[in-house]
Structures are given as structure tokens and as C-alpha cells.
Amino acid sequence: MNGGHTEHVEHHLPKNLYFVIFGALMVLTALTVGLAFVNLGQLNIVVALAVAIVKASLVVLFFMHLKYESHLTKVVLGAGVFWLMLLLGIIMDYVTRSWMYIPSLPK
Amino acid sequence: MTHGGAHAHVSSRFQHHFDSLAHQKDAATLGMWVFLVTEIMFFGGMFVAYMIFRMWYFPGFAAASEELDIVLGATNTAVLIGSSLTVALAVNAAQEGKQKTIVTMLVLTGILGLVFLVIKYFEYKVKIAGHHFPDGTTITLFPAAGFFDVSQSHHLAPLANQIRIFMFIYFALTGMHAVHMIIGIGVLSVILWMAVRGEFTKEWNTPVEIFGLYWHFVDIVWIFLFPLLYLVERHG
After folding, report:
1. Residues in contact with A101: Cβ distance below 8 Å, sequence separation at least 6, in sequence order
2. What angle do CA B138, B176, B91 make, to 5 degrees?
């Protein structure tokens, strides 16, 4: 197996970057708590998930060095996330059956 | 490409079926990511259950979520993000071959991990004392806020079953997350022991980095759990 590792890059990043990412994560945590107390209607969950996805992306790209990882590794994670999207897609089946009986839902 | 050379030093860590130490490290990293993808699948199922029940039983989810301690939840989020920083710095120090810094950062990570678990323990204690733990027999909910059970007339009584489902999901998700934290601290102890023995060098520090990947993943799970469980509907 030659050639499987030709993309190898040493992911040694400057320490400052880690502190910047840490700061961004803390700010985003404060933001998500703050926004939860604002009534955005249906958008509350959307905003909460969007902030969480941004935070997760920062951790994956910089703390976990995925940005500097081989294409193969990126494809593996991509496939995992794609699978998760398919699983979450099942929710659409529930969303589009509003006429159906939902157990013990109060009026 | 670092063909050759790798054999000259750190030969004790070099496995002959790889081209180079860099190749060996790439293989280990890829293997860890494959494992983390299975972890996404593991937690993903529970997240989907959460989403569907949240849609069906939103009133119960909103009421139950408000019973969770937002201050402790937010504190734990900060604690975990802090521990992710210390792990990242441990990996950084390992790449530079700074023995003392690796040990310091790993110790800090372990302390922050334990702080998280202690806070979680006190949260669980309150919930279990208040019979929020859905054991199937007792469902005396919210004793602090007017003590009621399903037989009593309380404005939340009609939501009792929905609240019970929320608490099931709360304990399943945070419980599995806590198990991952405990395993993480176990692995950390081994890595720390290796670091104290000075086994990590500039050339070979893969275990620190692989452990870091695991720790960051567990942090990411909490990044999603915190808003989904603690912040369902906090606005008036």
C-alpha cells in the first residue's frame, strides 16, 4: 500500500489559534443561552441548532485538525454525517402526517 | 513524504508494515475517525427519538426542560469547552516534544472532566430525589414547585406522561454522555501515565492525538445536548 498517505500534512498549529477557537466557542455558548430567552417562535430551535453546528464545526476543523487531515479522512466523516442526515430525514415522515393520531397529545 | 529516515530513530514505535511513521499515524487517525462515525450513529438514533418526541409532545418538553438547572448546564458546557482547549494544548505540546506541558495539560483535562461529572452528579441527585427519574412507578414531578403527582390537579398534570418521556430521553442521552466521559477519563489516565514516563516524542505522539479526537467528540455531543435539553423554551 503505497500512495495512501501521500497527502500527509503535519498539523501543528500555532497555540494562539487554539485560544481564539476557545474564545469563539465560549462566546457562541453565551449567544445560544441568550437567544433562548428571546421569543423567536419556530426559529428558536433553528437558531439553537445553527449555533451548535457552528460550534461543532469549529471543534472538528481546528481542535480535531480535520481541516488539515487527508481527503480520505474527510470523506469518512462526510459519509457519517450524510448517514446522520438520512436518519434525521425520517422526521419528515412524521412532519407530513399531521392528520394522523398522535398518542395522548392534549388539546 | 518522509520515506526512509523514519527507520533510523524511534524504531521501537515503528511498525514494519507501514511505509513510514507518518503513514502509520495516518492509518491510526483514519481508524479513530471511523470509530467516531460509529459513535455518531450511536448517538444519532437517540437524537432522532428526541426530535420526534419533541414535535409530538412539545408542551411537555418545554415544561420539563425548564426544570433543568440552566446555570449548571451552561457551566458544564464551559467546563467541557475548557477541557477541549487543554487537550488541544496537550496535543500541541506533544508535537513540540514538551514533556512537562503534556503532563500539565492532561492533568488539567482530567480535573475539568471530573468537575463536569461532579456537577452532573449533583444534577442527577436533585432529579432522582424529586422522582424525576422515570422508574415507572413513581411520577411525583416537580415537588419544589407545588408537589403534585398525576392524581393531583396541577396545571402540569395533563403533561405528566410527556414530561416522563422527556426525562427518559434526558437520562438516556446525558447518561450515555457521562459514560463516555468516564471512559475518557480512564483512557486519559493511561495516556497520562505514558506521558509521565516520557514516552511521547516529537516523532511519535499518536496516542495523545487519538485520545484528543475522542475527547473532542464527547465535547461535541454535549454541545448539542445542552441547547436541546436545557433550552427547549426558556422565553416567557
Report:
1. none
2. 150
Q: Find the range with the poorest average confidence among A71-85, B132-146, B211-225.
A: B132-146
Alpha helices in chain B (DSSP H): 21-56, 58-66, 70-95, 99-129, 160-196, 206-225
In A, minimum Cα distance to B20 occurs at A5
Kindly indicate the confidence band of residue B92, based on its pLDDT and cuts at 50, 70 and 90: very high
- Show which of residues 2-41 on chain A sit within 8 Å of chain B, judged by CB atoms: 2, 4-6, 8, 10, 12-13, 15, 18-19, 21-22, 25-26, 29, 32-33, 36-39
CB contact under 8 A, B231 and A36: yes
Specify the higher pLDDT residue, B159 or B81: B81
Those of residues 40-59 in B touching chain A at CB distance below 8 A are 40-41, 44-45, 47-48, 51-52, 55-57, 59
How does pLDDT run across B207-221, given as a tens digit for each residue? 999 999 999 999 999
Q: Quote the CA–CA distance of B203 and B10 in Å, as a whole number.
A: 7
Cα separation, B47 vs B116, whole angstroms: 21
What are the Cα distances from residue A46, in Å, to A24, A49, A51, A52, B227?
A: 20, 5, 9, 10, 11
> Considering CB atoms only, which of B23, B82, B228 is closest to A5?
B23
Measured between CA atoms, the residue of chain B closest to residue A50 is B224
Domains in chain B: ranges and CATH: 21-134+160-230 (1.20.120.80)
Determine, for residues B51 and A72 on separate chains, whether the beta-carbon distance falls below 8 Å.
Answer: no
Given a contact cutoff of 8 angstroms between Cβ atoms, the answer to whether B220 and B36 are in contact is: no
Query: Quick one: pLDDT band at residue A103, thresholds 50, 70, 90?
Result: low
Sign of CA dihedral B179, A69, A84, B60: positive
